[in-house]
# Entry
Amino acid sequence: MVSAETARTTVDMLENVVSHGWLKDYLTIPGYRIAAKTSTAEQSDGNGGYSDKYIVSLATLFPADDPKFVVLTSLASPDSNSSSSVVPDVNNVIKQIIKAREIQPSSGQPIDYPDYY
# Structure
């Protein structure tokens, strides 16, 4: 079991991926706080090794200040091994959920965690 404090910190850190990372220009929806995690995995070659193909994924949850929705998209064998190939679709799905469910804009601002690379 994860404590409420640990869960909140994790969501806040994943929100920084959208508010400060490379997803900022692609996934931001003004007024809504979104948290995200990208993933890239090599596919098996069927012989115990890896092929040159990938599976890319993008998991988002929103509103990040009070999470109610998760959008998870995975794509096998995309043209590139970057999650960027699924971002426009995820953005559109989130916008449709906001519209269909009449989700009110987020309150407050995300916590600004320092970036270390």
The first strand starts at residue 35 and ends at 44. The radius of gyration is 16 Å. The chain has one domain: 4-100.
